[in-house]
Design brief:
Length: 264
């Protein structure tokens, strides 16, 4: 009975030992697993932290790139605005240059007009130096205009008007260098209007006042023609003889000699 009890105790002890060993072996495996799990978790946490760090760096980099792009866009916009402003300024300068060119041309034209007007006014008031019947004379512009108007009238066949203008000239400019020439043309105007009596008087006055005048021979011939028109043949022949004697080499003397044949 004791043997059976010992054997039972020994079996129980063996069972306990086996149970204890098995428990210790299970305990050891759980510890290793926990360590592995902890280590894995640590690694996962490290990877996660690294990912978070990299994500943070990427976010920062993205933010920086975004800011740089924004700054570049702002710079490009400012540069474009400056370029547009520069273009506007260039256009304005071109416009100003064109306006200045137009203003300069206008100024030059005005200066030319003013200068021309001044010259014209100066010519109107400045005495005129000219040659009349082979003689140099100096006359006022107003005298010249009055004389030219009268001569233009007689050359246009307006004998009445010319005679009137020449008479007015004599009263207006009694001491004019045109005086002798005015008498000569006044006689011709009177002859043209068939006022032969008055023409004779004017021609005689002209020859008496200016016997050395280049037109004196013509005046004597015109005087003879006026006398002939008045039917004063004797007086006409006498005047022609005077012409031939006083101015023998003149063309008027030659014409007077031919004219004698027709005076009866």
């Amino acid at each position: 009975m004791r043997m059976s009890a010992w054997r039972s105790g020994l079996a129980a002890l063996a069972i306990w030992a086996a149970a204890t060993g098995a428990a210790q072996a299970g305990l050891f495996d759980d510890e290793e697993a926990r360590k592995a799990i902890v280590d894995l978790r640590s690694r996962v946490a490290a990877v996660d932290e690294q990912a978070k760090a990299q994500g943070s760096e990427l976010g920062t980099l993205n933010t920086q790139l975004t800011e740089q792009l924004t700054a570049m866009r702002r710079s490009l916009l400012e540069l474009n605005n400056q370029l547009e402003a520069l273009r506007a300024e260039v256009a304005k300068l071109r416009g100003n240059d064109e306006q200045m060119s137009r203003d300069l041309a206008e100024m030059q034209k005005r200066q030319k007009d003013v200068s021309q007007a001044f010259e014209e006014r100066l010519q109107k008031i400045e005495p005129a130096r000219l040659t009349l019947d082979g003689r140099e004379i100096v006359v006022e512009q107003v005298e010249k205009r009055a004389y030219d108007e009268a001569i233009a009238a007689i050359r246009g066949g307006e004998f009445d008007r010319s005679a009137t203008l020449l008479s007015v000239f004599q009263r207006r400019f009694p001491g004019s260098p045109y005086a002798d020439s005015v008498r000569f043309w006044q006689g011709n105007a009177l002859y043209g209007k068939r006022d032969y009596k008055e023409a004779i008087t004017v021609f005689r006055a002209f020859v008496a006042a200016a016997p050395d005048h280049p037109r004196a021979p013509e005046a004597l011939l015109a005087l003879a023609n006026s006398q002939a028109e008045m039917k004063d043949a004797r007086g006409a022949r006498k005047t022609i003889e005077e012409l031939m004697k006083t101015y023998p080499k003149s063309e008027a003397a030659q014409a007077g000699k031919e004219r004698l044949a027709s005076i009866k």
